[in-house]
Amino acid sequence: MTPLPLPDPAFGRHDHGACVRTALAAADAACAARGVQFTPIRRRVLEILLEHHEALGAYDVLARLDREGLGSKPPVAYRALGFLVEQGFAHRIERLNAFVACSHPGASHAPAFLICRSCGTVAEAEAAPGGPLGQEAAQSGFRIEQTVVEAQGLCPACQTGTAA
Asked: How far apart are the C-alpha atoms of 130 and 109, rounded to whole Å?
């Protein structure tokens, strides 16, 4: 597993336009390389997830698609979100029953999520497979196939009262 290229920018100032462009370019390239269709609906759902570093429920995404005339039936949103998760462009946040765009599309990683309970911002961190859980599993002969690590707390801006 290769380490993530950069820390997640969700809790800090960054060029969000570049963040979005990079993620969309990575999705375009990955879909072309894998021979899968990055349909306009799938692309728009990823763009919606990329607008903010916050998790959105499927019905939030569906409401946006409906307002834009792109679909009003739940399967439209669920299929697009399922595709994005399957391809590694988005993650499902179990605790929130919601989805967030992957901060490191194309990077092989085991994500962990830092969820601000005040503003709802979600940052992606690395849940190192060689960490304590991975070591315990290896010692007991257990092979981990998937982990879900979600931590809830306060982001730096909410701790200092400077959140927008």
From this structure: 12
